[in-house]
Write a structure and sequence with these properties.
The chain is an alpha+beta fold. The chain has five helices and 13 strands. The longest helix has about 35 residues.
Length: about 200
Amino acid sequence: MVEVSKATVRSNSSWLSSIKLPPKYNHLKIKKLCAAFERLPICKISDARCPMKKLSLCAAVLLLCLPMAASAQETDYSYYTKYAVKVILNGEEMDFTPPAIAVNDNTMVPFRQLFEAYGAEVIWQPGTKTITATKDGTTIKITIDSQTAYVNDEEVKLTQSPFTSKYKDGNMYTFVNLRFISEALGAVVTFTKEPVPTVYIQHWD
């Protein structure tokens, strides 16, 4: 009968460190889980086949988890396509990157591209995560993850707070409420759901 040491079991499971896992996937959790399998009394330590039995169980758990991790990542970016909203400003379609999306019945767009389209001056304060935009005597102040905004120092409650989100190009983008910003700058906003969700904006410089 062959005696198998714990050191042998550990060396046989070293293949885990060479596996390339998808982004957002916690490698350490799987290693800890497999280590727990090695401690289970599946067979006697003197059984030479025992390490392989344990490693087979570990491999099965890993294979089950990998598709879920990949699926979660795909879902993150598919949201931009599934909930995309077309934006027409003064008769021309705006090309946002990332695209405008519907969130809780609000059309949210990347803030910098929107303010630049209106010709507004923008100041970003990273310490307070505050965006200040000024155009023709109107000053808008909004803060990431806050539903409180200010237009010329007057408080306004937002129906959807600004937020940051990662896009498939690897960059983080800050999204703001399209209707709120547009109407604060004097534009007229209308929305149609058919044939595709579309926001029409008429703005006079």
